[in-house]
Amino acid sequence: MLLGIISDTHGLLRPEAEQALQGVQLIIHAGDVGDPDILARLKRIAPVFAVRGNVDTADWAQELPLTTVVEAGGANFYVLHNLRELDLKPRAAKFDFVISGHTHQPRQNEKDGVLYINPGSAGPRRFQLPITLARLDCARRPWNAEFIHLA
Q1: E strand or H helix at 147, and its extent?
Q2: Mean of the pLDDT values across residues 127-133?
Q3: What share of the chain is helix, strand, coil (3-state, %, to 5)?
């Protein structure tokens, strides 16, 4: 199973992001969506699991959970926007992954057998940070996110 992981679109879904997500079976959006149309467009590509970020304050965004759990490709994912708000011990809760956004910095690291992935920001450029999203092939072990640079 190929997953698309995106975050911090802030109301901008670039054509390059839509192209990079073609062929994924599931999309995880780690918050700061910015516009409900983003989710509608992503759902045309694949089913979407999304959480609410700190900029998602409009009425439509109240329907988004602050955290969600996704089971896909034989793995368990815990999704939240800001990793500093992690409210559980992922290994003890039997999660394979923690997916977060917020920092706009693409990153992958392993801690206590759990893989933490931040896909970076796919929306408007912030400072000199890259514009990225990630793809993850759950069938390929060891698990390793592929970061896609969009601009």
Answers
A1: strand 146-149
A2: 95
A3: 15, 30, 50
Top CATH class, 2-149: alpha beta
Model-level pTM? 0.97
Q: How far apart are CA 44 and CA 79, in angstroms?
A: 21
Q: How far apart are CA 129 and CA 41, in angstroms?
A: 25
Cβ atoms of 62 and 80 closer than 8 Å: no
The residues, ordered by sequence, that sit 6+ positions from 44 with a Cβ below 8 Å of its Cβ are none
What distance in Å separates the CA atoms of residue 13 and residue 26, rounded to the nearest whole number?
17
List pLDDT tens digits, range 42-64: 999 999 999 999 999 999 999 99
**Mean pLDDT of all residues in 56-78:** 97
